[in-house]
Q: What sequence folds into this?
């Protein structure tokens, strides 16, 4: 429980204690916490209780203040409260339902708050009683399910989702939340799907539903059978999957927009002139301002969908016009809770609208494009733990995408050309590229651009080795697909080559510092093997014959880097040490690159000597390359076009555990029922009742 | 009988509506009798006949007035006998004359068969004979009842005869013709219905109504044409015109099939009918299809469950989308197709507002992907030759075509052939993602858990799904079988050219490859690849059109979730929005007519009429010519002369491929040269001339024909387009092929001359009530008729052809026009 809320509760208590009269509901709570059965004297006690406005703070603090001994005494009453809450959910009287939902929420929270160290079974016992727990939870889940799927009011549905989110995030580690065992047995998966498939409910509750699903999927993911995983993996209903994609798309779009707004804010006006005057002093400051908090929950949902459900891949390419939330009028929905971004998910829904809005400035977009833009923002700055996690998750998602044949097919589809404006980090040595002139290309070009961009911008002391590995592997997977399907992508491969060579150079020059933390040989091996892919299989996927010449040119031009790398790995591999084997692999991988350098360098030198030219032009070198291919023999290396497929377990399990924990904390912080103004609810229901 | 007495007369047009001076002396034109004398005493009291004879003085009849009179009496008698209708009762007194055959045959009329239509030459003779033998009675009737009487003649008589009896008879006679034959003349029929007098309308209406009841597609076709051809009327008259009323009647869907049929329909029309008898409806239900794409997915194994699930989701779809018929409601017969067409037109309209080609293309793709959500449905492409249901629009394949301000676009449409699109059940939707299974078999084990865990989880999970046992078992089995493949799954099995790493793995011997070989393979494969055009964002259609049709079909089929079905077909269509296609339709009809004339006369001229669907006065659809790109695109992309392009595409001048391409080129040039001359097709720049993969040229865009020409700049005065490049491909002006070209034109013109009426009739009827620019001025028909040069001898015709060819070859204006187009529209 957050400090702030506690304080609020305390304040309220003191202020209320000043009054001679306590609220009636508070008196009733007190009765519950007494030993007696409150219904003994007043048979209508429970009926009346749920007509009272809930005082969450009081109830929660009361639960917290109960100590071990007392628990035993009042357990029957708490069980009974829980029981009546569940029953009240079935009431026709909406106010009772609302109050019951909120009371339940307070119960879950209060009990957990009190018993942080207690085992899950104790908590269940305290809330429902062991013998009845199964039945109670079954009833609860069934009631929630029917509320979510029925025609009940939107704010009620929203409250149900809040309760579920509250329940799911009540422990830091979701897998220790034993109550969820009952949520596994009594699945609300179908209700979540229904919310996502329906346009209007998706608009209002989609965000919560998606986050809830992402969290539920992660409950004891690696230890037991989670039916949500199984079910999610076989969903094939298009409207539902589209709905899920739409929710993610909107959340990411919103993030991108907020970032852009901040960026523009920072660029214009006095501040920017000041920064440019004072110099780089304020750059760090500006970066700070630009970091909109990333949305890990949504990203996790996207990951689970992409990773678990193969049908979801088609949703990535489902195109719709870019939704600019700033332009579209968002109807104020007071009951919609704040998302972690503090915004309401727009209720506007494109799928609903067969006639797309007519705006010539609207660029057609799809989830993948939005995701790539998002990733380009997130990956800019990986210093912050959250952003590092987000960047890692982005790369993991891209890895899954790059491994999927269908995704690869549309990434490389020549008919699906898009302009993707990736965000590029402002750096001192380069100007910000003029975004407007990006040509419209197959989407894979944007993915490659993003990878190149990452490679060139993260060569720093605090080296994100893990991200680099993923990045290079994504490129490798894409190349394998191109080789396999003989797709000749018109891409400026040169940029990739020079980025990779620079990366090798960086590894070499920071060898000692990096080796202390990382196995740089593994990364070097992957990079060299990318070159081997081009050298050995270039005929199957390079777009022009010239590009093959250019590859050789680039290698020969930068031969110093490869020479140094070879010296280094040779040195390490001849010594005995932990890197011996890793380094020797790199020496073997370098065989063809070295052959090329050793073959062409003398040829170029003699050409220069014969023609008395000190500095050969690129064209001249290419000429030498072209005329000397035939005397060069290369060795075919094994397994260049094979890769290890992504698997979450065991490698990534720890990462996801931590990620889910962080998301849980974040969601818990934001799901405050207090924000759901009771006045609004009461107003709404007073007209009904 | 008179059949043998053949008065040999050179062909004379029977149509005398706009008498030209040279024809006025024709013996067939008997002197019109004055109303008083022609109307016998018996008929004096009968207004309909009087009207006719009055008309005879201004518009002379095809048939001799007296003959006609008698024949009509006969016919009317018959009509009276058959259908006791009030409007003919007043003719009782004139009926005595020739009643005996009529009575006998009256009952047979409907059964009259109409196969083996003999050569129309003899028909004409018959007609002529009859004209010259006024003494002989019932000639017209005999003609009408003869096997020679075909739709063309029926239409002609319907148009020219002013005799209500004749018209009514022909109206009835229409029922006996094959539907396809009448359908060809549907524009003519409906235009007459709209713009001619009441009697013609009354004669036509029963037939139209009858056909509308029978067929949805005929109903819509009629409604569209009626709308389009009514549009030239003044707005005030239009609203109350017959055409508009009939159109409303059709669209109100009151012309449903009557009787037990209607009762049966709701059942057969239910889209989700699980007992799909025909291949068309096999959908995912046919899990037992040998090639089911979902073979290895969860989905297939739980297919029984999916049926119920997809059923409910389909119903959901219905609720939000009235286009899809729900099984309970009385199916709205015409609605799905109308909605489909409407959305296609809507897309076109919205595209037109976007500034760049690229934006248009992207928008088109995204709009179509939305359209896909509503398919399959009981919708079809009217330009197709077979019955089918549209199941999917492969949206990424669609392209925006080159046009300055409009946004015509080309879409490919996947359909499933079926026996009858009205009664066969609509195929069940297969989700887009279903295709994934065929593509990514190897992706199976990446679902979060290791396969063992997965297997475990499947068996442990308590039933949360009715038939989970069925599918979990299935899946585990397949998973386990597949496990060993995991390690090799990313290796290459497509590439035969590159040595695979696998081979070296097995041999363990180091394998060496020559860098030179890699480089050589690269350039060879790049050269070897069929010449494709480079993608140009400003001309997105070039690449799409260049791709060979077969290859495109194969590629799209591979990527389609419906591709495995045996009835799968690919169609394409150009959607035009904001363009009047009525002239195109007219041109199509003329081309089609000439084509069949040439076929009949066995002259090997080649033309390709492409189908046109007129939806309104400013929208429609065109059947694209497959495997063809415009000369403009050829020149721009290849940067070669036409001859060099032929050499590049087909091989050296002596190869068989080249020679056959050259022959095709010549035959099509001859065909289109004649067409261009006869129809005065203008605006002949290279963007409007296509070249197909076999070397044929195909002219498209008949926006300027007959009396209209673009901007009236006075360019393009030559008879047809014959550039020196064309002549080069034919082997130069002295070559054999060039002579062959001229010879073909001669034969073509002579054949066309022989059947001139069949061509003229099409144009003439459409002129009625039309404001189309091609009918501008008064001399359209006369000019057209003159270009057939009926009065010339064959030698003279040959001379004429030589002149035309010479003139066109030397014509500067052709060149000038190309230059003009290049300057204004960037067309090379």
A:
């Amino acid at each position: 429980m957050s400090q702030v809320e506690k304080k609020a509760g305390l304040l309220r208590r003191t202020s209320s204690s000043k009054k001679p009269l306590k609220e009636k509901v508070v008196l009733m709570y007190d009765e519950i916490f007494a030993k007696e059965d409150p219904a003994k004297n007043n048979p209508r006690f429970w009926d009346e209780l749920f007509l009272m406005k809930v005082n969450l703070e009081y109830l929660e603090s009361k639960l917290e203040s109960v100590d071990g001994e007392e628990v035993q005494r009042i357990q029957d009453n708490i069980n009974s409260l829980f029981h009546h809450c569940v029953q009240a959910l079935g009431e026709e009287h909406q106010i009772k339902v609302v109050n019951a939902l909120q009371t339940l929420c307070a119960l879950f929270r209060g009990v957990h708050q009190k018993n942080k160290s207690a085992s899950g079974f104790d908590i269940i016992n305290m809330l429902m009683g062991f013998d009845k727990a199964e039945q109670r939870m079954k009833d609860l889940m069934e009631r929630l399910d029917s509320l979510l799927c029925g025609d009940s009011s939107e704010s009620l549905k929203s409250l149900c989702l809040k309760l579920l989110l509250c329940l799911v995030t009540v422990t830091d580690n979701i897998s220790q939340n034993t109550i969820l065992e009952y949520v596994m047995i009594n699945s609300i998966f179908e209700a979540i799907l229904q919310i996502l498939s329906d346009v209007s409910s998706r608009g209002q509750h989609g965000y919560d539903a998606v986050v809830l699903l992402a969290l539920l999927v992660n409950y004891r993911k690696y230890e037991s059978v989670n039916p949500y995983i199984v079910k999610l993996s076989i969903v094939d209903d298009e409207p539902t999957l589209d709905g899920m994609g739409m929710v993610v798309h909107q959340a990411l779009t919103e993030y991108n927009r907020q970032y852009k707004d901040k960026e523009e804010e920072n660029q214009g006006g006095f501040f920017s002139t000041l920064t440019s005057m004072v110099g780089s002093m304020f750059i760090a400051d500006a970066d700070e301002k630009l970091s909109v908090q990333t949305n890990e929950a949504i990203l996790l949902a996207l990951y689970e969908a992409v990773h678990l459900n193969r049908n979801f891949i088609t949703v990535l390419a489902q195109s719709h016009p870019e939704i600019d939330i700033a332009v579209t009028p968002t109807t104020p929905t007071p009951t919609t809770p704040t998302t972690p971004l503090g915004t309401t998910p727009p209720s506007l829904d494109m799928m609903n609208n067969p006639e797309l809005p007519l705006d010539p400035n609207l660029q057609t977009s799809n989830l993948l494009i939005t995701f790539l833009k998002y990733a380009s923002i997130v990956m800019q700055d990986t210093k912050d733990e959250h952003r590092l996690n987000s960047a890692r998750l982005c790369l993991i998602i891209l890895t899954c995408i790059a491994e999927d044949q269908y995704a690869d097919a549309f990434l490389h589809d020549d008919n699906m050309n898009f302009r993707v404006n990736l965000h590029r980090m402002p750096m001192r040595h380069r100007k910000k590229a003029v975004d407007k002139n990006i040509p419209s290309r197959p989407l894979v070009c944007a993915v490659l651009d993003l990878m190149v961009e990452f490679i060139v911008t993260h060569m720093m002391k605090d080296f994100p080795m893990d991200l680099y590995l993923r990045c290079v592997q994504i490129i490798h997977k894409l190349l394998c697909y191109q080789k396999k399907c003989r797709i000749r992508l018109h891409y400026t491969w040169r940029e990739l080559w020079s980025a990779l060579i620079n990366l090798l150079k960086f590894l070499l020059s920071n060898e000692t510092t990096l080796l202390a933390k990382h196995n740089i040989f593994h990364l070097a091996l992957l990079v060299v093997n990318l070159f081997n892919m081009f050298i050995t299989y270039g005929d199957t996927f390079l777009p022009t014959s010239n590009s093959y010449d250019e590859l050789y040119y680039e290698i020969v031009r930068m031969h110093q880097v490869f020479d140094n790398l070879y010296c280094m790995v040779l040195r390490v591999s001849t010594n005995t040490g932990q890197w011996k084997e890793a380094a020797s692999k790199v020496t073997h991988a370098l065989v063809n690159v070295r052959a090329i350098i050793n073959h062409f360098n003398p040829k170029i030198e003699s050409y220069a000597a014969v023609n008395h030219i000190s500095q050969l032009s690129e064209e001249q070198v290419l000429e030498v390359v072209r005329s000397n291919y035939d005397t060069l023999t290369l060795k075919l290396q094994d397994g260049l076009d094979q890769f290890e497929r992504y698997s979450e377990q065991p490698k990534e399990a720890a990462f996801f555990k931590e990620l889910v924990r962080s998301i849980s904390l974040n969601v818990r912080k934001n799901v405050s029922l207090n924000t759901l103004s009771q006045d609004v609810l009461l107003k709404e229901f007073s007209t009904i009742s | 009988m008179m059949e043998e007495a053949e008065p040999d007369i050179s062909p004379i047009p029977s149509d005398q509506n706009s008498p030209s001076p040279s024809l006025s002396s024709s013996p067939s034109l008997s002197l019109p009798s004055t109303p008083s004398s022609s109307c016998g005493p018996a008929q004096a009291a009968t207004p309909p006949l009087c009207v006719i004879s009055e008309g005879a003085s201004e518009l002379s009849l095809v048939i001799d007035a007296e003959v006609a009179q008698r024949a009509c009496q006969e016919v009317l008698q018959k009509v009276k006998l058959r259908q006791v209708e009030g409007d003919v009762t007043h003719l009782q007194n004139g009926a005595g004359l020739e009643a005996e055959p009529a009575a006998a045959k009256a009952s047979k009329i409907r059964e009259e068969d109409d196969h083996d239509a003999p050569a129309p030459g003899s028909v004409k003779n018959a007609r002529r004979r009859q004209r010259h033998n006024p003494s002989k009675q019932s000639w017209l009737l005999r003609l009408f009842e003869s096997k020679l009487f075909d739709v063309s003649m029926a239409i002609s008589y319907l148009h020219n005869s002013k005799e209500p009896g004749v018209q009514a008879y022909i109206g009835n006679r229409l029922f006996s013709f094959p539907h396809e034959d009448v359908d060809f003349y549907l524009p003519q029929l409906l235009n007459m219905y709209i713009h001619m007098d009441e009697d013609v309308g009354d004669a036509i209406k029963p037939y139209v109504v009858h056909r509308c009841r029978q067929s949805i597609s005929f109903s819509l076709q009629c409604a569209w044409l009626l709308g389009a051809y009514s549009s030239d009327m003044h707005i005030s008259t239009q609203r109350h015109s017959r055409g508009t009323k009939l159109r409303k009647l059709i669209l109100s869907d009151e012309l449903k099939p009557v009787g037990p049929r209607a009762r049966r329909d709701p059942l057969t029309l239910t889209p989700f009918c699980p007992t799909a008898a025909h291949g068309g409806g096999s959908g995912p239900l046919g899990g037992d299809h040998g090639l089911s794409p979902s073979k290895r997915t969860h989905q297939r194994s739980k297919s029984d469950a999916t049926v119920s699930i997809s059923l409910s989701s389909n119903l959901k779809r219905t609720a939000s989308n009235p286009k899809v018929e729900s099984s309970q409601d009385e199916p709205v017969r015409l609605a799905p197709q109308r909605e489909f067409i409407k959305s296609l037109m809507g897309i076109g309209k919205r595209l037109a507002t976007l500034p760049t080609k690229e934006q248009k293309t992207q928008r088109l793709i995204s709009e179509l992907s939305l359209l896909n959500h509503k398919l399959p449905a009981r919708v079809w492409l009217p330009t197709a030759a077979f019955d089918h249901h549209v199941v999917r629009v492969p949206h990424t394949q669609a392209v925006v075509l080159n046009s300055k301000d409009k946004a015509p676009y080309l879409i490919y449409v996947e359909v499933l052939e079926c026996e009858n699109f009205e009664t066969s059940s609509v195929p069940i939707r297969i989700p887009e993602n279903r295709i994934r299974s065929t593509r990514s078999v190897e992706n199976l084990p990446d679902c979060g858990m290791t396969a063992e865990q997965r297997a475990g989880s499947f068996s442990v999970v308590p039933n949360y799904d009715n038939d989970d046992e069925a599918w979990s078992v299935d899946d585990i089995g397949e998973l386990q079988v597949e496990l060993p493949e995991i390690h090799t799954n990313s290796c290459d099995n497509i590439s035969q050219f590159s040595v695979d790493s696998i081979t070296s793995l097995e041999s363990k011997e180091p394998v060496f490859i020559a860098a030179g070989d890699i480089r050589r393979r690269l350039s060879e494969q790049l050269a070897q690849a069929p010449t494709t055009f480079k993608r140009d964002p400003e001309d997105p259609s070039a690449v799409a059109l260049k791709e060979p049709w077969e290859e495109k079909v194969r590629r799209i089929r591979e990527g389609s979730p419906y591709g495995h079905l045996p009835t799968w077909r690919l169609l394409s269509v150009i959607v035009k929005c904001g363009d009047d296609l009525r002239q195109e339709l007219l041109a199509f009809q003329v081309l089609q007519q000439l084509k069949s004339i040439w076929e009949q006369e066995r002259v090997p001229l080649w033309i390709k009429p492409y189908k046109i669907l007129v939806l309104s006065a400013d929208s429609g659809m065109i059947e694209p010519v497959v495997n063809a790109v415009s000369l403009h695109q050829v020149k721009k992309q290849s940067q070669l002369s036409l001859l060099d392009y032929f050499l590049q595409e087909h091989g050296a001048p002596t190869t068989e491929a080249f020679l056959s391409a050259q022959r095709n080129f010549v035959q099509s040039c001859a065909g289109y040269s004649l067409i261009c001359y006869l129809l005065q097709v203008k605006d002949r720049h290279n963007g409007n001339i296509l070249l197909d993969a076999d070397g044929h040229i195909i002219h498209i865009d008949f926006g300027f024909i007959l009396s209209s020409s673009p901007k009236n700049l006075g360019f393009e005065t030559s008879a047809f387009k014959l550039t020196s490049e064309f002549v080069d491909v034919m082997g130069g002006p002295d070559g054999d092929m060039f002579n062959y070209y001229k010879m073909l034109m001669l034969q073509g013109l002579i054949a066309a001359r022989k059947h001139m009426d069949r061509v003229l009739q099409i144009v003439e009827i459409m002129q009625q009530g039309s404001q189309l620019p091609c009918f501008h001025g008064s001399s359209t028909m006369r000019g057209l008729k003159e270009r057939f040069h009926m009065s010339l001898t064959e030698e003279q015709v040959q001379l004429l052809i030589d002149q035309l060819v010479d003139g066109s070859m030397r014509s500067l204006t052709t060149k000038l026009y190309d230059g003009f187009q290049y300057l204004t529209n960037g067309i090379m």
Observations:
- Residues 656-679 of chain B form the longest helix (24 residues).
